[in-house]
Structures are given as C-alpha cells and as structure tokens.
C-alpha cells in the first residue's frame, strides 16, 4: 500500500490487461496501460449500471436492487439516465461557478492553517486535508458542517468494498445511516421551502435538487438521495488524498518543494503533476462488459468485470517520460486521475481550485514544513483488494514558518522544459 508502483510496473510490462481474482468470489480484468485505460474509460460497451454487473457482486452485498454502495447515481448509470442526472447538477460545477467560490475556500484554508500548532507535531490530514474539502462541499450542498465527523465515519464505512462479513456489516450500516441522515435533511428542507416562491437562484444544492425533483420532475426520490450521497462522498474522500498524498510527495522531493515555495505560480502545474504522480483514486469504479471487448488482442468476454488501474496508467512510460519522477515542468500532462470520457470527474474544477489554494496557502504560511516521522512509519488507509481510493490515515508534520534550508547542488529542481 505504501508503494504499489513497482508491482504495477511489472504488470504493465507484461501486458495491457490481466485477469485477476477478486475477494468477492469472481474474477475481473485489470487494465494497466495508458492507451487501453483511456479507451476503456470511454467505451460505451463497458457499462456502469449495477444491473449488468456479474452476479457475484450482488451475492457479496456490493449491489442491492439496482444500486451500488452509493445508491442510484450518475456514476452507476449509463445514458440516457447518466446524461439526465449529470445535466441536473452540472451547472453548479462549471469552472466559472466554481471560481466564484475562491474567496470562501481561501478563507476556510486560512482559518484551518491558523488553528494548527507551529513547531510541534500536527496531523495534516486531521487538521487541514480532511476539513477543507468537507467544509466546502457541505456548504455547497447546505449540509450542516458541524455534522462532518459523522459523515466521515459513515462515508469511510460506505466506501469499503471488502466482502468480509464485519466490513460488509459496517458498510451497510454506514449506507443506512447516511441515507437516513440525508432524507431527514431533505424532509426538513421541504417543510420550509415554498415551491411557488422558489426562484432559479437557490441558496444551496439541496434546495436546487429538491426543486428539480418536485417542480421539474427531473429526479425521483432515490436519485435525489443518491446524488447527495455521491456529491458528499466524492466531494471529500478524494480531495483529502490530493492534499495528503501531494504534500507527502513534496516532502519527499525537497527540491520540488523548494521550487514551489520560491515560485507559487508553479502550484497549478504542481497540482496536475501530483494528481498524475500519486493520485487520490488508484483504480476507477467497476465497469462490466456488455459485449465481448478486445483489449490489446485479449478478449474480455461479455459479462466480465473491468477495473481500470488509473495510478498504473499514469506511470506508463509509453505515455509519460520518466514517469516515476515528480516533474513540475512536465508538458502535455493529460493524466487519468479524474478519469476520462462520459464519467470524467464532475468535480474536477472544484478539486483543482481546492488543491491550488491548499498548496499555495500551506507553503505560503509554513514554507519550512517537514515530516515528523520517517515515511516508512506512515499508515495508509486500510484497503480491501477492490477499494479504489489511495490515501494516508494521518500525515504527521512539523509546521515551520521559517523557509527550508536551500537545496544542495544535487537537488536542483526540474522546472525547465522537459527534454
Ligand atoms: C482530487 C480530487 C478528485 C479526484 C482525483 C476525482 C476523481 C474522479 C474519477 C477518477 C472519477 C471517474 C470514476 C470512473 O470513471 O470510474 C470521478 C467522477 C466523479 N467525481 Fe470526482 N474526483 C475528485 C474530486 C471530486 C469532487 C470535489 C467532486 C465534487 C462534488 C467530485 C464529484 C464527482 C462525480 C459526481 C463523479 C461522477 C461523474 C459521472 O459519473 O459522470 N469529484 N472523480
């Protein structure tokens, strides 16, 4: 878990697709090379709808009725439902709408950093990487931020895809608790919303979605709850890892960190490179072939589960020069960290903005940040074999406002154009 990349490199060298066993009593096809990964993410023959998934996933409790662990939502649907669900909410996540949130996100980041202790050990996940995105998405949705520790527990349980009985029980309890909580909020909001008076400009996304469901008939009740659940979970479980994995990568490459401290204008490029280098989503969500699909000469038979290893594809030397190097000057950095095609991350503009503000503010305030423990002692989130996210449990750091010692001659940053 601390470093899956050598194992991925061996698989990728051997082939673009591999038949692998899963802990759920069935096999899957794992796609490891960039070109094939990108094609698979955009292939309409690979369905996202749980109804097409192999029966063993249902038996393992990962699918109930027509829904996956996050209910009925766009990430578990195909066109035309996917198109409709994405359209209902898409307007709230455009680059322009998201940019208007900049001052508020900056304020949240500044307040969190101001509350962290200086010159002593602090957990950057607990104090910064987790509360920043969960506060932002909670405010966007209109969910009380004071409940964030409760969502975290439920959402952690919910994204666990293990079939082990205890984890399955916890996942089901997490899903039930989160659904119950969100339906309570929706019911409460409905009581106070006057549909007649409701205007186009809604105060938050829960109200906008209730309006889309009740007045415009664009969503049914299961879709309304599934949308809220997806946005709440996808809106924070991922960005926490961008900040956590990204900060760790920078702390392990002091010359790159020094270059960013010296020139914060490099942060947006650094965010892209950190997404490629050690992205928050190690493997994309499950897909099922609805007909035979040829992947680099291997037939993936209809009915098979397909898993795209984004983290592996993003280190493919056929696509990226020196892929294991963190290079701020990398050109044409079309990584797959946000997926590709129809299900390309809806929240990408928000995640990019949050990442840019997070790294700029953190390094601006604490340019002398360093790891409080050796990297080998860091704990990564417990994963089952099919779990898709990759992130740290905790990131103990010492926050220092003094600038770091200048990098030695051997540590010159790569900030010039890539050869
Ligand atoms: C750095 C942070 C993030 C990363 C790396 C990330 C990554 C991804 C990836 C890889 C997918 C596609 C999965 C697949 O095709 O199997 C995806 C989809 C999605 N993401 Fe993100 N995400 C991030 C942040 C966010 C945020 C902040 C939101 C905000 C609400 C969000 C909402 C969504 C939604 C709604 C989808 C489903 C899109 C669809 O099915 O059309 N994500 N994300």
TrEMBL record:
PROSITE patterns named among the record's database cross-references: CYTOCHROME_P450
A GO term for molecular function: iron ion binding
Stated name of the protein: Cytochrome P450
Family: Belongs to the cytochrome P450 family.
Pfam families listed in its UniProt record: p450
Organism this protein belongs to: Nonomuraea fuscirosea
InterPro entries associated with the record: Cyt_P450, Cyt_P450_B, Cyt_P450_CS, Cyt_P450_sf
Keyword terms: Heme, Iron, Metal-binding, Monooxygenase, Oxidoreductase
